[in-house]
Amino acid sequence: MLLFAGWVNRRQQEMIDYLKEENRILREQLGGRRLRLTDDQRRRLAVKGKVLGREVLAELAGIVTPETILSWYRKLVGRKYDGSPRRRPGRPPTEKEIADLVVRIAVECPDHGYTKIRDVLRNLGHELGRNTVKRILLEHGIVPAPERKKQPTWSTFIKAHMEAGTLAAADFFTVEVLTLFGTVRYQVLFVIELSTRRVHVAGITPQAYEEWMKQIARNLTDAVDGFLLGMHYLIMDRDPLFSAAFRQILQDGGVKPVRLPAQSPDLNCYAERFVLSIKSECLNRLILLGEKHLRLVVAEYVRHYHVERHHQGLGGQLIEPDETAWRNTGRVACRERLGGLLRYYYREAA
User: Fold this and answer.
1) For the stretch 90-125, what's the b/e string if a residue is b when 16 or more beta carbons lie within 10 angstroms of its beta carbon?
2) What value, to the nearest 5°, has the Cα angle with vertex 257 and ends 307 and 185?
3) pLDDT in tens, 149-171
4) What residue spans define the domains of the chain?
5) Which of 193, 164, 188 is CA-nearest to residue 175?
6) Which class would CATH give 161-289?
7) What contacts 24+ positions apart, CB below 8 Å, involve 22-25?
8) What pLDDT digit, counting tens, does each position of 206-234 carry?
């Protein structure tokens, strides 16, 4: 037992020596600069330092002196027993939960003024004065109702038209393809229906140009099988490829182009999310060998995206479930695409 205790003591001393040397090196790295600590960090050091005492702290190569640590501890104790009132003078501040509710109502209902928001809160069991509502909104930078209700917010516009199934978005993404002449950057143009998340790859080309874009617009608005049939709006960024001629063909086909402000990718978040999905789940894991290979991979992923991929934005549902979906009995099987890169698990028919 004595031998074991001695071994444990040596190991602990070796660990302490190492930590002390590490602290010395860290202090040398600071080069005399003052170390900024948060109140929480000071409190933790003060509590630990009080247990050790001044003599032990003096032996350690700490980041602060023993006197500093013990002074922090005295202030910590003093604040606890100083007998001063904890509440600031005046009325108590509005609870954060209620203030957040005021802001939420003002944002979601831009036509609600201070009085109407007060009445809504009263119906929810919160008694707030009109001036209190006004103060909370001003603190959060929210203008009065007459200025807020001039036009709907972008999120309100998207949700209103998305629920009606009349809104789609278009965007490009690029892919590097290995060819006999080196790597070639291909451009992929796709359109996504926001309500259902259905995706249509409109075209793949190494060099997009205006005539190609005009033909794409004709295909999308075709009266028989155009992807944009029944759509009223098409969101797009300010890429020069979405030219005036391209937008005019869409307009003639009954689809109004909606151009986003410059440098605002968040406003086309559904299209951006599809780009992230296809690249992270598929394209970034492959070396694409030629245009034919690229078209095959994109087609396989889009099929997987529609039939086999569960979408969190749709409550974990499939966009176009086939006959294998939602079976409760039968042997579990796996369908593989692209050599097992994409997998779909289902139950075989009994």
Assistant:
1) eeeebeeebbebbbebbbeebebbbebbbebbeeee
2) 60
3) 555 565 666 666 555 568 899 99
4) 2-81, 96-148, 161-289
5) 188
6) alpha beta
7) 23/60, 23/61, 23/62, 23/63, 24/61
8) 999 999 999 999 999 998 889 999 889 99
